[in-house]
Amino acid sequence: MFEQTFKNIDDVLWKEAGCTTELDYTEQTSWMLFLKYLDDLEHERAMQAELLGKPYSFIIDDNYRWSAWAAPKTKNGDFDHDAALTGDDLIDYVNRKLFPYLHGFKQRASSPDTIEYKIGEIKNKFSSGYSLRDALELIDGLRFRSQQEKHELSHLYEAKIKNMGNAGRDGGEYYTPRPLIRAMVKVTKPKLGESIYDGAVGSAGFLCEAHDFLRQKKLTTSQLKTLQIRTFYGKEKKSLAYVIAIMNMILHGIETPNIVHTNSLTENLADIQQKDRFDIVLANPPFGGKERKEVQQNFPIKTGETAFLFLQHFIKYLKAGGRGAVVIKNTFLSNADNAARALRRELLESCNLHTILDCPQGTFQGAGVKTVVLFFEKGAPTRNIWYYQLDPGRSLGKTNPLNDDDLSEFVELQARFADSEKSWSLDVADLDADSVDLSVKNPNKAEEAPLREPEVILAEIATLDKESVKILEGIRGLL
């Protein structure tokens, strides 16, 4: 129903000078969707209040509501083209009046989990008031009234986020393949009433999939309220991802997501108290980034590697008995530097690292690194680690991505830590105490031929060169 509308919006954005990538398309679609959603929500709440004979106080003032500037209507309910601003007038209104008004909400918000806080975070990149007018009219045709409409919109929005992930290196930050997330959720088994946290929330894929997992059962009104208000928590550093995460969660049925726009790593781990902790951590933190020295001071194990700081952050944020599933570069398992070894020791001593899922090359589009998923429970040291080497039997790529069937055997075998051709267990007592090397070494597969030393290769090249010279000399003699 809404698919063509989304395509038409992309066509409008493609012509817009301020929007150059799939990331921009999704961000700009997001802020318009958000304001339209908010207008629908406010009118719905006002009608409910009226039926109950109660007053309703609108969050957005009359002049700044969607129905006033984005989509004014005639008395018949038709679009009022005479009253609708366009061209320079529209851009001037949006940049000089609307957005300064909206940004004021952040200062007035009582806490980050309020709609007011979310309103204060959105940004405009349109430079043409004609393009913006076209986009607004298309967005106005979308409806958020029924659960079915939200469900369809959420699928289309997920497709946009997936396209972002395929758009290149930067887009990959925001997109973790959904089949992988679903497998991580199934293994972690969240229960209603538990709190779920992602400190590098990106597009909120983990929280949305965990929500869908918990919504599979019939829930009471009280349980739905718990799911809405006291279950999902996240933090995101980048403005673009923050806005996308909010919209993604809203479309999945979470009206006021508990997402804070902040850099999780600026928090000092020593300040975290029991009340701040969560039952479950699900995350794919950014890796490769280099954090500044003052940020590193917040952590017991000092390192510039962003993913290693996040792993410390997640362990600290888990309650005793809490469960974590975190994607990380596979080099974490074997890196010989002091920080990596210290972090592996910390993980093994403070948590039961019960499962390591080894993901194949191509799992993440546009990312050249190989990854593993660490599954752990906080509070007891690791005795045994169960490994599973995921091998879908084909090369993964943009046209041949990971699917749920690829991970079904992993989920099934993991439930009983069963051995197979692709899975095995490691006794931590057998680890080298100095290196704490947790590398994936499948005992059921023959070892690949070791790489030769550079000197050997160079010597062979020199030998071949000599032979080539002799052959050429022989050919010359024949001429």
UniProtKB/TrEMBL annotation:
Keywords in alphabetical order: Endonuclease, Hydrolase, Methyltransferase, Nuclease, Restriction system, S-adenosyl-L-methionine, Transferase
Residue ranges of the DNA methylase adenine-specific domain? 149-448
So what EC number does this one have? Answer: 2.1.1.72
One Pfam family cited in the UniProt record for this chain: N6_Mtase
Q: Name one GO molecular function term.
A: site-specific DNA-methyltransferase (adenine-specific) activity
* Source superkingdom: Bacteria
What is the residue range of the signal peptide feature?
none
Q: Where is the N6 adenine-specific DNA methyltransferase N-terminal domain?
A: 4-77
Tell me the PROSITE patterns matching this sequence.
Answer: N6_MTASE
**SUPFAM superfamilies linked to this entry:** S-adenosyl-L-methionine-dependent methyltransferases
Q: Which reaction does it catalyse?
A: a 2'-deoxyadenosine in DNA + S-adenosyl-L-methionine = an N(6)-methyl-2'-deoxyadenosine in DNA + S-adenosyl-L-homocysteine + H(+)
Gene Ontology terms: biological process: DNA restriction-modification system; methylation
What family is this protein classified in? Belongs to the N(4)/N(6)-methyltransferase family.
Q: What is this protein called?
A: site-specific DNA-methyltransferase (adenine-specific)
What organism is this sequence from? endosymbiont of Escarpia spicata
